User: Fold Phytoene dehydrogenase from Streptomyces mashuensis.
Amino acid sequence: MARPTDTSTGTAPTTDHGPGGSNGTTRRRFAGGLAAVVTTAATAATVTTATGTAHAAPRPAGSPARRAAAPTVAVLGGGVAGLTAAHELAERGFDVTVYERKTALGGKARSMDVPGSARGGRRPLPGEHGFRFIPGFYRNLPDTLRRIPFPGNSNGCHDNLVASTEVMLARTGGREDIRLPFRSIGQPPPVLTPEAFLRTVTALAETFQGLPAHEVAHFAGRLLVWFTSCEQRRNGSWERVPWFDYLGAAGRSENYRQLLAIGITRNIIATKAEVASTRTVATCIEAFLYNAMGRGADGEPDRVLNAPTNEAWIGPWVTHLRSLGVTFRLGCAVRDLRLAGGRVAEAVVEDTSGARRSVTADHFVSAMPVEHARTTWNAGLRAADPQLAACDRLRTDWMTGIQFYLTEPTPIIHGHVNHIDTPWSLTSVSQAQYWRGRDFRADYGDGSVADCLSVDVSEWDRPGILYGKTAKQCTPEEVAREVWVQLKSGLNDTGRTVLRDSVLHSWFLDPAVSPGGPRPENDEQLLIHPVGTWYHRPTARTAVPNLFLCGDYVACDIDLATMEGANATAREAVNALLDAAGSGAERCTVTPLYRAPELEALKRQDAWRYRLGLRNAFDVG
Assistant:
């Protein structure tokens, strides 16, 4: 079995197709299966992680003879999905090469240096696509974090997670901000009956000021309907209903619409409640509530990293993968996947100079974002598997981060702030308070920066309050000024001055974004979830026997574009590859979202009612 080869590896001659060698499609995705040979030996020893799950023992790079005999895999994409697939495959004895179009690994999860910001031997200021948020209901990604060695940590990179203790909804117009401690719900009742569930949700919702009691009761009732709905109803009915309609938001108060329907949906899930699938939104809310109740969770509901992402996670991960024998080829954009004999015979990649080359392997794993992956699926590939063509119906939108560097520590709260009334749907977190063992002034920048306020901008098509333009219409400088003003509109409007212009040192906007001008561009968009999206999401296994898909757009139970979804689908892709290869290696563990056992009988009853065309028993209108 041949090692993945291209002209940059120096291991075998390859074909250079030249600028006209592609059939006209662009960018990249992933691959699958032939034989197994040495993979059975990889299961001889296993290790048990802190979660008690058995995994194939990590394998060193090994001798050239062993690597020459190993099945080869080309992983196309170096984000969370691609690195997860490489990790699982390398532990099982496969010879893995990762091809990434950018010159950095980690995808949207990575942090990056602010150019020209370092002075006096310090590291550059840390920028990022958007802040990291790793809730406790994630189970697969935390397992991977535990398996990435980190000096001084008994649980690897997982020990770099720090729990927040509260969240704040910042209101504008002089209204008091709403602060919610994560432990306010407490432990759930011994038995989660419908009555106990309603009391729990009502107690939480009552902390939202200005909501009438009957609207709180209605919201709790709608959640109970979801929690007791069978999978057939969730997939067949609620996937087709917008969250806004499901909540009956149109006929209720402005506070109800803004707090429980529009605001949270837009800010947390980066989509619009008026069109977002109830299945997607309610799945996320269900997971958060169980997490807050202490059910089926890996940790606290809101966790962040204790350092810039590359320092706390991505860098150690890449180092570990290299130790397992994984090879990385950066600056290699996949332009085409070519079939021969019903299998992917080669991937055509383009380097930073524009030269195109052929990459061959036994298996291909497409681990790119959907907007880039589908441009690599030519007509022949789409004919071979119709689910690839269905991905054209998936939609992406802008959700991008900007960082403000401050000369004084500014820990607004110990958690994330949802600036719920801002036209650009901002969320933020003050990061220095979490970076234990680091002195921001001593470690980063020019010595004068003490904090980083990292902000996500979720709405790019609504006019702002400073220039009256959408974010896409603004120049980067105007985006920064507008975001700063919108932050202050909610934080400085009740007699306190939380953000002062005098402490603003500088800002950094994700370089993937080019707003302003006649054609604004965003090279790293986010999958969104309008009604019906679920039906167009592909599975990890394709009809092409050596091509596999992973990424946050591939179908999984979390049904939301997340790092957890990217990690879980990479595990599914590796399992499909192992099946196709006839491998005896242990399969990856894929942990589903938690389901309360007390409610299973009600879901079975609902399945019976659904088959008869009846409403959910708690759906009283």
